[in-house]
Amino acid sequence: MKVRLEGGREGDRTAITLGRRAFLQLSGLAAGAALAAPAILKSTTIANAADRTPITFASAKFFGNRTVAEMVDVFNQSQSRILVKYDELPPPSASTEVHQGLVQRLAKKDGAPDVFTQDVVWIAEFAGAGWALPLDQYVSAEEAAAYFPGVLAACKWNGKLSALPWYVDSGMLYYRKDLLEAAGAAVPQTWDDLVKTATEIQKAGKAKIGFSWQGKQAEVLICDLVEFVTSHGGSILAANGKTVEIAEPNAVAAVQFMYDTIAKYRISPTDVRSWDEEPSRAPFTAGDAVFLRNWSYVYPIAQDPKASSVDGKVGVAPLPHFAGGKSAACLGGYQYGVNATTRHREAAIEFLKWLSSPATQLLFATELGLAPSRPAVFDSPELGKAQPFMQTLKPVFVGATPRPVTPKYSQVSLALQSAVSRAITNGDVEAELKRAKANLERIVGK
Protein backbone atom coordinates (compact mmCIF):
# COMPACT_ATOMS: atom_id res chain seq x y z
CA MET A 1 0.00 0.00 0.00
CA LYS A 2 1.23 3.51 -0.70
CA VAL A 3 0.95 6.71 1.30
CA ARG A 4 1.77 10.26 0.35
CA LEU A 5 4.79 11.97 1.86
CA GLU A 6 4.85 15.60 2.78
CA GLY A 7 7.08 17.17 0.18
CA GLY A 8 8.68 13.80 -0.41
CA ARG A 9 8.13 10.44 -2.02
CA GLU A 10 5.72 7.59 -1.80
CA GLY A 11 6.30 4.99 0.83
CA ASP A 12 4.95 1.67 1.99
CA ARG A 13 2.67 1.67 4.97
CA THR A 14 0.28 -0.52 6.91
CA ALA A 15 -3.04 1.13 7.70
CA ILE A 16 -6.52 0.39 8.95
CA THR A 17 -8.62 -0.67 5.98
CA LEU A 18 -12.30 0.15 6.16
CA GLY A 19 -14.54 -2.39 4.50
CA ARG A 20 -16.77 -1.31 1.62
CA ARG A 21 -19.82 -1.01 3.87
CA ALA A 22 -18.00 1.13 6.45
CA PHE A 23 -16.51 3.25 3.68
CA LEU A 24 -19.98 3.94 2.31
CA GLN A 25 -21.36 4.63 5.77
CA LEU A 26 -18.76 7.33 6.37
CA SER A 27 -18.97 8.74 2.87
CA GLY A 28 -22.74 8.93 3.06
CA LEU A 29 -22.55 11.69 5.64
CA ALA A 30 -23.76 15.04 4.35
CA ALA A 31 -21.41 17.98 4.64
CA GLY A 32 -21.23 19.10 8.25
CA ALA A 33 -23.17 16.10 9.57
CA ALA A 34 -22.45 14.83 13.08
CA LEU A 35 -19.66 12.28 13.25
CA ALA A 36 -21.61 10.13 15.65
CA ALA A 37 -24.52 9.59 13.30
CA PRO A 38 -23.30 8.06 10.04
CA ALA A 39 -25.85 7.18 7.38
CA ILE A 40 -25.47 4.47 4.75
CA LEU A 41 -25.07 5.78 1.24
CA LYS A 42 -28.16 4.71 -0.63
CA SER A 43 -28.05 3.33 -4.14
CA THR A 44 -29.88 5.89 -6.20
CA THR A 45 -30.25 6.66 -9.85
CA ILE A 46 -27.85 9.50 -10.55
CA ALA A 47 -29.15 12.32 -12.70
CA ASN A 48 -27.98 12.52 -16.27
CA ALA A 49 -24.65 14.33 -16.60
CA ALA A 50 -26.33 16.86 -18.87
CA ASP A 51 -28.67 17.84 -16.02
CA ARG A 52 -25.88 18.47 -13.51
CA THR A 53 -23.57 21.46 -13.02
CA PRO A 54 -20.09 20.41 -14.19
CA ILE A 55 -17.01 21.51 -12.22
CA THR A 56 -13.39 20.37 -12.21
CA PHE A 57 -11.25 19.54 -9.19
CA ALA A 58 -7.45 19.57 -9.53
CA SER A 59 -5.44 17.90 -6.79
CA ALA A 60 -2.02 16.46 -6.18
CA LYS A 61 -2.07 12.66 -6.17
CA PHE A 62 -2.20 11.12 -2.70
CA PHE A 63 -1.86 7.46 -1.74
CA GLY A 64 -3.68 5.35 0.82
CA ASN A 65 -6.38 2.72 1.14
CA ARG A 66 -8.51 4.89 -1.14
CA THR A 67 -7.65 7.47 -3.77
CA VAL A 68 -8.73 11.08 -4.15
CA ALA A 69 -10.60 9.98 -7.28
CA GLU A 70 -12.69 7.60 -5.15
CA MET A 71 -13.50 10.46 -2.77
CA VAL A 72 -14.73 12.51 -5.73
CA ASP A 73 -16.89 9.55 -6.82
CA VAL A 74 -18.42 9.48 -3.34
CA PHE A 75 -19.50 13.10 -3.72
CA ASN A 76 -20.84 12.52 -7.23
CA GLN A 77 -22.92 9.59 -5.99
CA SER A 78 -24.22 11.41 -2.92
CA GLN A 79 -26.24 14.03 -4.82
CA SER A 80 -27.62 14.72 -8.28
CA ARG A 81 -26.99 18.44 -8.80
CA ILE A 82 -23.23 18.66 -9.36
CA LEU A 83 -20.84 16.49 -11.36
CA VAL A 84 -17.17 16.81 -10.44
CA LYS A 85 -14.46 15.87 -12.92
CA TYR A 86 -11.18 14.99 -11.20
CA ASP A 87 -7.97 16.43 -12.66
CA GLU A 88 -5.08 14.49 -11.14
CA LEU A 89 -1.79 16.34 -10.68
CA PRO A 90 1.58 14.74 -9.72
CA PRO A 91 2.14 13.70 -6.10
CA PRO A 92 3.57 16.15 -3.51
CA SER A 93 6.97 14.54 -4.07
CA ALA A 94 6.97 16.47 -7.37
CA SER A 95 6.10 19.74 -5.62
CA THR A 96 7.59 21.94 -8.33
CA GLU A 97 5.58 20.19 -11.04
CA VAL A 98 2.36 20.43 -9.01
CA HIS A 99 2.95 24.15 -8.48
CA GLN A 100 3.74 24.79 -12.13
CA GLY A 101 0.66 22.87 -13.25
CA LEU A 102 -1.61 24.95 -11.02
CA VAL A 103 0.03 28.23 -11.98
CA GLN A 104 -0.38 27.49 -15.68
CA ARG A 105 -4.06 26.62 -15.25
CA LEU A 106 -5.01 29.43 -12.88
CA ALA A 107 -3.12 32.11 -14.82
CA LYS A 108 -5.37 31.50 -17.85
CA LYS A 109 -8.32 32.87 -15.83
CA ASP A 110 -10.74 30.71 -17.79
CA GLY A 111 -12.48 29.26 -14.74
CA ALA A 112 -10.70 25.89 -14.66
CA PRO A 113 -10.09 24.16 -12.37
CA ASP A 114 -13.03 25.32 -10.29
CA VAL A 115 -11.62 23.85 -7.05
CA PHE A 116 -8.02 22.88 -6.34
CA THR A 117 -5.68 21.70 -3.60
CA GLN A 118 -2.55 23.66 -2.78
CA ASP A 119 0.49 23.39 -0.56
CA VAL A 120 0.01 25.68 2.43
CA VAL A 121 2.98 27.80 1.25
CA TRP A 122 1.30 28.71 -2.07
CA ILE A 123 -1.77 30.31 -0.51
CA ALA A 124 -0.29 33.82 -0.34
CA GLU A 125 1.01 33.56 -3.91
CA PHE A 126 -2.31 32.45 -5.41
CA ALA A 127 -4.31 34.96 -3.37
CA GLY A 128 -1.88 37.78 -4.14
CA ALA A 129 -2.16 37.04 -7.86
CA GLY A 130 -5.95 37.22 -7.67
CA TRP A 131 -6.34 33.55 -8.63
CA ALA A 132 -7.99 32.37 -5.41
CA LEU A 133 -11.52 33.39 -4.51
CA PRO A 134 -11.81 35.11 -1.08
CA LEU A 135 -14.01 32.86 1.04
CA ASP A 136 -15.04 35.02 4.00
CA GLN A 137 -18.60 35.57 2.74
CA TYR A 138 -19.10 31.81 2.38
CA VAL A 139 -17.60 30.72 5.71
CA SER A 140 -19.24 32.01 8.89
CA ALA A 141 -17.29 32.84 12.04
CA GLU A 142 -18.81 29.76 13.66
CA GLU A 143 -17.65 27.54 10.79
CA ALA A 144 -14.16 29.06 10.85
CA ALA A 145 -13.86 28.47 14.60
CA ALA A 146 -14.20 24.72 14.01
CA TYR A 147 -10.62 24.52 12.63
CA PHE A 148 -7.28 24.61 14.41
CA PRO A 149 -6.44 28.33 14.72
CA GLY A 150 -2.92 27.92 13.33
CA VAL A 151 -4.10 26.13 10.20
CA LEU A 152 -6.90 28.65 9.66
CA ALA A 153 -4.41 31.51 10.02
CA ALA A 154 -2.19 29.88 7.38
CA CYS A 155 -5.19 29.93 5.01
CA LYS A 156 -5.43 33.73 5.16
CA TRP A 157 -3.69 36.40 3.10
CA ASN A 158 -3.94 40.10 3.92
CA GLY A 159 -6.59 39.29 6.49
CA LYS A 160 -8.84 37.47 4.02
CA LEU A 161 -9.68 33.77 4.09
CA SER A 162 -8.16 32.59 0.81
CA ALA A 163 -8.27 28.81 1.35
CA LEU A 164 -10.17 26.28 3.44
CA PRO A 165 -8.25 23.79 5.62
CA TRP A 166 -7.85 20.18 4.53
CA TYR A 167 -5.14 18.38 6.51
CA VAL A 168 -2.17 19.19 8.71
CA ASP A 169 1.26 17.65 9.15
CA SER A 170 4.55 18.69 10.73
CA GLY A 171 8.07 17.54 11.39
CA MET A 172 8.82 15.37 14.43
CA LEU A 173 11.62 13.35 16.05
CA TYR A 174 11.62 9.57 15.79
CA TYR A 175 13.91 7.70 18.18
CA ARG A 176 14.89 4.16 19.11
CA LYS A 177 13.38 3.47 22.50
CA ASP A 178 15.46 0.35 23.04
CA LEU A 179 18.78 2.07 22.29
CA LEU A 180 18.04 5.03 24.56
CA GLU A 181 16.94 2.72 27.36
CA ALA A 182 20.10 0.60 27.05
CA ALA A 183 22.23 3.75 27.15
CA GLY A 184 20.34 5.15 30.14
CA ALA A 185 19.49 8.23 28.08
CA ALA A 186 16.35 10.33 28.08
CA VAL A 187 14.58 11.56 24.98
CA PRO A 188 16.60 14.65 23.97
CA GLN A 189 15.10 18.03 24.76
CA THR A 190 17.92 20.05 23.20
CA TRP A 191 20.07 19.57 20.12
CA ASP A 192 23.10 19.26 22.43
CA ASP A 193 21.34 16.38 24.18
CA LEU A 194 20.72 14.71 20.83
CA VAL A 195 24.38 15.06 19.78
CA LYS A 196 25.58 13.63 23.10
CA THR A 197 23.25 10.62 23.04
CA ALA A 198 23.75 9.88 19.35
CA THR A 199 27.54 10.06 19.72
CA GLU A 200 27.57 7.69 22.70
CA ILE A 201 25.40 5.10 20.98
CA GLN A 202 27.45 5.31 17.78
CA LYS A 203 30.73 4.88 19.71
CA ALA A 204 29.26 1.85 21.44
CA GLY A 205 28.70 0.32 18.01
CA LYS A 206 24.93 0.09 18.44
CA ALA A 207 24.07 2.23 15.41
CA LYS A 208 25.81 3.40 12.25
CA ILE A 209 23.97 6.71 12.07
CA GLY A 210 23.24 9.01 14.99
CA PHE A 211 20.82 11.40 13.33
CA SER A 212 19.13 11.11 9.94
CA TRP A 213 17.51 14.16 8.32
CA GLN A 214 16.89 15.74 4.91
CA GLY A 215 19.65 17.86 3.37
CA LYS A 216 18.72 17.50 -0.29
CA GLN A 217 18.31 20.69 -2.31
CA ALA A 218 14.53 20.45 -2.34
CA GLU A 219 11.51 21.89 -0.50
CA VAL A 220 12.04 19.55 2.45
CA LEU A 221 15.40 21.26 3.13
CA ILE A 222 13.47 24.46 3.78
CA CYS A 223 11.17 22.58 6.16
CA ASP A 224 14.19 21.34 8.11
CA LEU A 225 15.71 24.84 7.97
CA VAL A 226 12.58 26.38 9.50
CA GLU A 227 12.77 23.92 12.41
CA PHE A 228 16.45 24.47 13.17
CA VAL A 229 16.31 28.26 12.82
CA THR A 230 13.05 28.73 14.74
CA SER A 231 14.23 26.46 17.57
CA HIS A 232 17.19 28.85 17.96
CA GLY A 233 14.90 31.87 18.22
CA GLY A 234 15.60 33.01 14.67
CA SER A 235 13.54 33.37 11.51
CA ILE A 236 13.90 33.53 7.74
CA LEU A 237 11.61 36.49 7.10
CA ALA A 238 10.10 38.85 9.65
CA ALA A 239 6.34 38.87 10.15
CA ASN A 240 6.00 41.70 7.61
CA GLY A 241 7.22 39.33 4.87
CA LYS A 242 9.77 41.91 3.72
CA THR A 243 12.57 42.02 6.28
CA VAL A 244 15.08 39.24 5.65
CA GLU A 245 16.55 37.70 8.81
CA ILE A 246 18.28 34.58 7.48
CA ALA A 247 21.76 36.09 8.02
CA GLU A 248 21.14 37.11 11.65
CA PRO A 249 23.31 35.40 14.32
CA ASN A 250 20.67 32.91 15.53
CA ALA A 251 19.90 31.75 12.00
CA VAL A 252 23.61 31.46 11.14
CA ALA A 253 24.25 29.40 14.26
CA ALA A 254 21.34 27.09 13.39
CA VAL A 255 22.62 26.43 9.86
CA GLN A 256 26.13 25.98 11.26
CA PHE A 257 24.69 23.22 13.44
CA MET A 258 23.16 21.56 10.39
CA TYR A 259 26.63 21.49 8.82
CA ASP A 260 28.24 20.37 12.07
CA THR A 261 26.02 17.29 12.40
CA ILE A 262 27.86 16.06 9.29
CA ALA A 263 31.34 17.55 9.44
CA LYS A 264 32.04 18.11 13.16
CA TYR A 265 29.96 15.73 15.25
CA ARG A 266 29.70 13.09 12.50
CA ILE A 267 26.32 11.91 13.73
CA SER A 268 24.89 12.40 10.23
CA PRO A 269 26.47 10.84 7.12
CA THR A 270 27.63 12.97 4.19
CA ASP A 271 24.89 11.28 2.17
CA VAL A 272 22.32 13.28 4.13
CA ARG A 273 23.05 16.16 1.73
CA SER A 274 21.31 14.19 -1.02
CA TRP A 275 18.50 12.72 1.08
CA ASP A 276 14.88 13.74 1.09
CA GLU A 277 12.21 11.90 3.11
CA GLU A 278 12.47 8.31 1.93
CA PRO A 279 16.27 7.94 1.72
CA SER A 280 16.48 9.40 5.25
CA ARG A 281 13.72 7.11 6.52
CA ALA A 282 15.15 3.87 5.13
CA PRO A 283 18.21 3.52 7.42
CA PHE A 284 16.10 4.29 10.46
CA THR A 285 13.52 1.60 9.80
CA ALA A 286 16.38 -0.74 8.83
CA GLY A 287 17.74 -0.38 12.36
CA ASP A 288 20.83 1.65 11.45
CA ALA A 289 19.95 5.03 13.00
CA VAL A 290 19.23 6.33 16.49
CA PHE A 291 17.25 9.45 15.59
CA LEU A 292 15.27 10.61 12.56
CA ARG A 293 13.56 13.88 11.68
CA ASN A 294 10.58 13.20 9.39
CA TRP A 295 6.81 13.50 8.92
CA SER A 296 3.96 11.48 10.43
CA TYR A 297 3.80 8.97 7.54
CA VAL A 298 6.88 7.19 8.94
CA TYR A 299 5.18 5.80 12.03
CA PRO A 300 2.98 3.12 10.43
CA ILE A 301 5.94 2.01 8.31
CA ALA A 302 8.17 1.79 11.39
CA GLN A 303 5.56 -0.38 13.16
CA ASP A 304 5.04 -2.76 10.22
CA PRO A 305 7.22 -5.88 10.67
CA LYS A 306 7.11 -6.46 6.91
CA ALA A 307 8.68 -3.05 6.22
CA SER A 308 10.66 -2.36 9.39
CA SER A 309 13.36 -3.98 11.50
CA VAL A 310 12.49 -1.81 14.49
CA ASP A 311 8.74 -2.40 14.95
CA GLY A 312 7.80 -1.97 18.59
CA LYS A 313 11.02 -0.09 19.31
CA VAL A 314 10.18 3.36 17.96
CA GLY A 315 9.09 6.43 19.87
CA VAL A 316 8.05 9.87 18.65
CA ALA A 317 8.63 13.23 20.32
CA PRO A 318 8.73 16.95 19.51
CA LEU A 319 11.94 18.01 17.81
CA PRO A 320 14.71 19.29 20.10
CA HIS A 321 15.60 22.96 20.48
CA PHE A 322 18.72 24.98 21.20
CA ALA A 323 19.46 26.19 24.72
CA GLY A 324 17.02 28.97 25.56
CA GLY A 325 14.84 28.18 22.56
CA LYS A 326 11.64 26.23 21.97
CA SER A 327 10.88 23.16 19.90
CA ALA A 328 9.67 24.00 16.39
CA ALA A 329 7.88 21.75 13.91
CA CYS A 330 7.45 22.93 10.34
CA LEU A 331 3.81 23.20 9.32
CA GLY A 332 2.95 21.08 6.31
CA GLY A 333 -0.22 20.02 4.58
CA TYR A 334 -2.36 20.84 1.55
CA GLN A 335 -5.44 23.07 1.69
CA TYR A 336 -8.40 23.78 -0.61
CA GLY A 337 -8.97 26.77 -2.86
CA VAL A 338 -11.61 28.01 -5.31
CA ASN A 339 -10.70 29.57 -8.62
CA ALA A 340 -11.57 33.28 -8.58
CA THR A 341 -12.82 32.98 -12.18
CA THR A 342 -14.95 29.87 -11.75
CA ARG A 343 -18.14 30.01 -13.80
CA HIS A 344 -19.93 27.80 -11.30
CA ARG A 345 -19.28 29.49 -7.98
CA GLU A 346 -22.26 28.06 -6.13
CA ALA A 347 -21.42 24.49 -7.10
CA ALA A 348 -17.72 25.02 -6.36
CA ILE A 349 -18.47 26.32 -2.86
CA GLU A 350 -20.81 23.40 -2.14
CA PHE A 351 -18.13 20.88 -3.18
CA LEU A 352 -15.47 22.81 -1.25
CA LYS A 353 -17.49 22.65 1.94
CA TRP A 354 -18.16 18.95 1.43
CA LEU A 355 -14.42 18.31 1.03
CA SER A 356 -13.62 20.15 4.26
CA SER A 357 -16.62 18.84 6.23
CA PRO A 358 -16.17 16.74 9.41
CA ALA A 359 -17.36 13.57 7.69
CA THR A 360 -15.05 13.92 4.71
CA GLN A 361 -12.07 14.88 6.88
CA LEU A 362 -12.69 11.71 8.89
CA LEU A 363 -12.79 9.75 5.66
CA PHE A 364 -9.48 11.21 4.47
CA ALA A 365 -7.92 10.58 7.90
CA THR A 366 -8.94 6.93 8.10
CA GLU A 367 -8.46 6.06 4.43
CA LEU A 368 -5.46 8.18 3.40
CA GLY A 369 -3.82 8.88 6.77
CA LEU A 370 -4.20 12.68 6.40
CA ALA A 371 -4.52 14.34 9.81
CA PRO A 372 -7.73 16.42 10.05
CA SER A 373 -7.62 20.18 10.57
CA ARG A 374 -10.75 20.10 12.77
CA PRO A 375 -10.23 19.43 16.51
CA ALA A 376 -13.62 17.67 16.71
CA VAL A 377 -12.53 15.15 14.09
CA PHE A 378 -9.07 14.82 15.60
CA ASP A 379 -10.57 13.96 18.97
CA SER A 380 -13.33 11.69 17.66
CA PRO A 381 -13.64 8.07 18.84
CA GLU A 382 -13.79 6.98 15.20
CA LEU A 383 -10.33 8.38 14.48
CA GLY A 384 -8.99 7.07 17.78
CA LYS A 385 -10.02 3.57 16.79
CA ALA A 386 -8.70 3.73 13.23
CA GLN A 387 -5.57 5.86 13.73
CA PRO A 388 -4.68 5.96 17.46
CA PHE A 389 -1.13 7.17 16.79
CA MET A 390 -2.42 10.19 14.89
CA GLN A 391 -4.28 11.48 17.92
CA THR A 392 -1.10 11.49 20.00
CA LEU A 393 0.42 13.98 17.56
CA LYS A 394 -2.14 16.69 18.19
CA PRO A 395 0.17 18.84 20.40
CA VAL A 396 2.88 18.73 17.72
CA PHE A 397 0.49 19.67 14.90
CA VAL A 398 -1.22 22.47 16.82
CA GLY A 399 2.07 24.22 17.57
CA ALA A 400 3.56 23.85 14.09
CA THR A 401 5.58 26.74 12.61
CA PRO A 402 4.76 27.99 9.11
CA ARG A 403 7.34 28.55 6.40
CA PRO A 404 7.84 32.19 5.29
CA VAL A 405 4.51 33.76 4.33
CA THR A 406 4.96 35.69 1.10
CA PRO A 407 3.39 35.72 -2.37
CA LYS A 408 6.94 35.25 -3.66
CA TYR A 409 7.38 32.03 -1.69
CA SER A 410 8.37 29.84 -4.65
CA GLN A 411 11.24 32.18 -5.54
CA VAL A 412 12.23 32.52 -1.89
CA SER A 413 12.31 28.74 -1.48
CA LEU A 414 14.45 28.10 -4.55
CA ALA A 415 16.95 30.78 -3.52
CA LEU A 416 17.16 29.39 0.01
CA GLN A 417 17.48 25.80 -1.15
CA SER A 418 20.51 26.70 -3.23
CA ALA A 419 22.17 28.78 -0.50
CA VAL A 420 21.61 26.34 2.37
CA SER A 421 22.66 23.39 0.23
CA ARG A 422 25.97 25.14 -0.48
CA ALA A 423 26.36 26.11 3.18
CA ILE A 424 25.99 22.57 4.50
CA THR A 425 28.38 21.34 1.81
CA ASN A 426 31.24 23.88 1.88
CA GLY A 427 30.82 24.99 5.50
CA ASP A 428 31.09 28.70 4.62
CA VAL A 429 27.80 29.27 6.37
CA GLU A 430 27.91 32.98 7.17
CA ALA A 431 29.03 33.99 3.68
CA GLU A 432 26.39 31.83 1.99
CA LEU A 433 23.62 33.21 4.18
CA LYS A 434 24.72 36.79 3.54
CA ARG A 435 24.47 36.12 -0.18
CA ALA A 436 21.09 34.50 0.40
CA LYS A 437 19.93 37.59 2.29
CA ALA A 438 20.86 39.83 -0.63
CA ASN A 439 19.02 37.55 -3.06
CA LEU A 440 15.92 37.37 -0.87
CA GLU A 441 15.84 41.15 -0.42
CA ARG A 442 15.74 41.51 -4.20
CA ILE A 443 12.91 38.94 -4.41
CA VAL A 444 10.61 40.12 -1.62
CA GLY A 445 11.39 43.78 -2.25
CA LYS A 446 9.86 43.64 -5.72
Describe it.
- Belongs to the bacterial solute-binding protein 1 family.
- It comes from Segnochrobactrum spirostomi.
- InterPro entries: Bact_solute-bd_prot1 (IPR050490), SBP (IPR006059), TAT_signal (IPR006311).
- Keywords: Periplasm, Signal, Transport.
- The chain is of the alpha/beta class.
- It folds into 2 domains: 2-168 and 332-398, D-Maltodextrin-Binding Protein, domain 2 (3-Layer(aba) Sandwich); 172-328 and 408-444, Periplasmic binding protein-like II (D-Maltodextrin-Binding Protein, domain 2).
- Helices cover 41% and strands 13% of the residues.
- It has 20 helices and 14 strands.
- The strands form 5 sheets. The protein has a 4-stranded mixed β-sheet with strand order 4-3-5-14. The protein has a 4-stranded mixed β-sheet with strand order 10-11-9-12, with helices on both faces.
- The longest helix is centred in the last third of the chain and has 18 residues, at 409-426.
- The model is unreliable at 1-24 and 26-46 (pLDDT under 50).
Strand order of the largest sheet: 4-3-5-14
CATH C-level class of the largest domain is Alpha Beta
Q: Approximately how much helix is present in the residues? A: 40-55%
Please state the structural category. alpha/beta
The tally of strands reads 14
Assign an overall shape.
globular
Keywords: Periplasm, Signal, Transport
InterPro entries: Bact_solute-bd_prot1, SBP, TAT_signal
Protein name: ABC transporter substrate-binding protein
GO cellular component, one term: periplasmic space
